[in-house]
Design brief:
The chain is mainly alpha-helical. The protein has one domain. The chain has five helices and four strands, in the order αββααβαβα. It has helices at about 5-20, 45-65, 75-80, 90-100, 120-140, and strands spanning about 30-35, 40, 85, 105-110. The strands form two sheets. Strands 1-4 form a two-stranded parallel ribbon. A two-stranded parallel ribbon has the order 2-3. Helix 4 crosses helix 5 (about 120-140). The longest helix has 22 residues, at about 120-140. The termini are far apart.
Length: about 150
């Protein structure tokens, strides 16, 4: 399950307020963000085509368990959830958009192969490594870890 960006941004603001309350510089609070899914392809059309059956299967499971469906369509899920599904440029832009709200320095990418062939899974991870991660490293400074 995932939600739109707003509830998470509110929690992060609260976390930084509490960090400050206890005498720490809010700028030193390490914030991480997770993703509700990941699939990168050369084009957004290909990414959505491949990911659609995965989204539909997960939505069906949620309905069968009586859970509320937050994102009724794949398009809504891609646009408003934390899922990173699309072309490398779309994924980079989305992470940067979230970074503007969260100021996060750590990103957990849900890169399981559920619903993918081994070849698709390998290719999406390779695309993340070759095209997406280097761009994110250039735009988002890493945390300064103190020993």
């Amino acid at each position: 399950m995932t939600n739109p960006i707003d509830p998470y941004a509110e929690l992060i603001r609260y976390y930084r307020e509490r960090w400050d309350f206890y005498g720490h510089d809010p700028a030193t609070a390490i914030v991480g963000a997770g993703t509700a899914g990941f699939f990168a392809a050369k084009t957004s059309q290909e990414a959505r085509e491949v990911y659609r059956p995965i989204f539909e299967a997960r939505s069906a499971l949620q309905r069968s368990l009586g859970l509320d469906i937050v994102f009724p369509t794949l398009e809504d899920f891609v646009e408003r959830s934390s899922a990173l599904i699309g072309s490398p440029q779309q994924i980079i832009q989305k992470v940067l958009r979230y970074h503007e709200q969260f100021g996060h320095q750590v990103l957990h990418v849900q890169a399981d192969g559920d619903g993918l062939t081994d070849k698709q899974h390998r290719e999406t991870l390779e695309l993340f490594q070759s095209d997406i991660a280097p761009a994110l490293r250039r735009h988002i400074p890493g945390p300064e870890w103190k020993a």
